[in-house]
């Protein structure tokens, strides 16, 4: 189980619950963006499991300007020096195909560290062709919901991707995985890794709470509660997944 986390507490809870790896990012409400250097430094000081870092300068699509790509490369240098164990990224051309040149440039810069191609693959014009290119470029794994909004909806495509990969890359389902659907996703896809947040809402510790002043924009998130990865949820996910793996064997 890989856990996507956007705070020190969530990262620590993920390790306590048994996660094998953290995908560290900011702004999970936008699907995850590059975390701060400070967040990585503190998380690395608390954890023993590997911490992979998201390289995504903003939310939205995965077609980046030259300025945005320059930011990506500067973040990469800084975060690699701070001890990132791997990186998570994915860049596309405007026509929905892989930006192979930029992906190769980033891979060259992070070597010998491993890399995951993230759910940018789900927005490509042809996910199976994109998978083949991701393999050839040299990624270690690919995170995918099978080209759909959730891994459950994309289950047929995820199964096809795992079959097509033939062990050349780890295909890791992610996107909307929960306690209800994890068994079905793992059993039908035969995936050996999966990705989720295992989060729950936790009330703010603020004693004085002034309502009606949102700090967000369109989403208007609640100001006096936060989403935090929960130890018990991680443990429950791992128990469910282990049962699935034993059944498959």
TrEMBL record:
Record-level GO cellular component terms: cytoplasm; nucleus
Protein name: Copper homeostasis protein cutC homolog
Main location: cytoplasm
Keyword Signal: no
Pfam families: CutC
GO molecular function terms noted in the UniProt entry: copper ion binding
Domain of life: Eukaryota
UniProt subcellular location: Cytoplasm; Nucleus
Keywords, sorted A to Z: Copper, Cytoplasm, Metal-binding, Nucleus
Subunit structure, as described in the record: Homotetramer.
Function description: May play a role in copper homeostasis. Can bind one Cu(1+) per subunit.
UniProt xrefs under InterPro entries: CutC-like, CutC-like_dom_sf
Taxon lineage: Eukaryota, Metazoa, Spiralia, Lophotrochozoa, Mollusca
Keyword Nucleus among record annotations: yes
Assigned protein family: Belongs to the CutC family.
